Amino acid sequence: MRNNSFLAASCLVVSLVPSLGFCRSPEEAGSVPVSRILFGSCIKQDQPIPILDTVVGRDPDLFLFIGDNIYADTADMAVMRAKYETLGADVGFVELREACPVLATWDDHDYGLNDAGADYPMRDEAQEVFVDFWKDPADSPRRRRPGVYDSRLYGPEGKRLQVILLDTRYFRGPLKKGERRTGGPYYPDEDPSIPMLGEVQWEWLRDELREPAEVRLVVSGIQLVAEAAGQETWSNLPAERKRFFELVAETEANGVVVLSGDRHWSEISCETDAAPYPIYDLTSSSLNQVHPRGTPTENRFRVSETTYHVENFGEVSIDWEDPDPELRLRVLDIEGNERLGKTLRLSELRSR
């Protein structure tokens, strides 16, 4: 398989099964660039996940589980562990972990409670269950600090990929509620004191965005770019959303693309006014569920011609051989067919 040389060079893997690609620097990541990154969200662990066969068949260099990786919805850690065990026993999941490194962050259902934030009383216990299941090594920062945010660097100089996994649950403050709309009961709150990431994570993110990299995939369990239309989104905390784009500008971090899930449908959104260059948000959800309503919420930032509401996964491919590398952002269905797509040049993701 194409990715075997990548695994050997990038992470000095002894056993592929527990490998999560724990590489911290370009030197550790080896000389082989990462060219195909797949991701997905929202797995009902008690249901079949046949789409993982398609994922493995695309020979990914890296796979990202970006939230709602199980539906725990519990404060009982024994129940949560049992649900992770169900996911871990799935044949497709086992094959995926054998095929390539995987990284993960959480959203609300694997955090422990629907729409939960810092008020969830079992967040520390849930984090322990999380890092155990995803096989974080003993020295992982996620075993020592609050929150499951993390990052990785892959590839040689000039072809470096940075993956930044945000935690939009552990520190998030209360959301403002009002009359329920199509997407849910939440409304934007202008109070700048309500956190999304928390100050420690913001400072960490500032440092990460200053790391040298050509392409940066910022993973957010919830949509970062989409407008507030009742659902959970960064737009419910507009000061925090603005802060993200300002931080990209401040750190002069080029090459940022956001990956998100949560919605049980897929779309591509883009922010052009608040950011130093167009920031695309590729949303992919769900890996094994069909959206029951089939009607997306309003989103003036949507740039994909349609949305897609059946099982799907996301793909980011990078042509590093081109002098101006081409990035393809795609949503693929259970057969591997493209349903949504956007092609960019890396030069488009630089400060104006």
Structural class: alpha/beta
Q: Give the end-to-end Cα distance, rounded to a whole number of Å.
A: 40 Å
Taken from the alpha-carbon principal axes, the silhouette is globular
How are the strands of the largest sheet arranged? 3-2-1-12-13-14
Helix content: 10-25%
What is the overall pLDDT average? 92
Mind explaining what this structure looks like?
- By secondary structure, this protein is of the alpha/beta class.
- The chain has helices at residues 4-11, 26-29, 51-57, 77-89, 91-99, 108-111, 123-133, 199-209, 238-251, and strands at 36-40, 62-65, 102-104, 150-154, 161-165, 176-177, 186-187, 215-220, 256-260, 267-271, 279-283, 312-319, 326-333, 338-345.
- The strands form three sheets. It has a six-stranded mixed beta sheet with strand order 3-2-1-12-13-14, with no helix packed on it. A six-stranded mixed beta sheet has the order 4-5-8-9-11-10.
- Helix 3 packs parallel to helix 5 and helix 4 runs parallel beside helix 7 (123-133).
- The chain starts with a helix and ends in a 7-residue tail after the last strand.
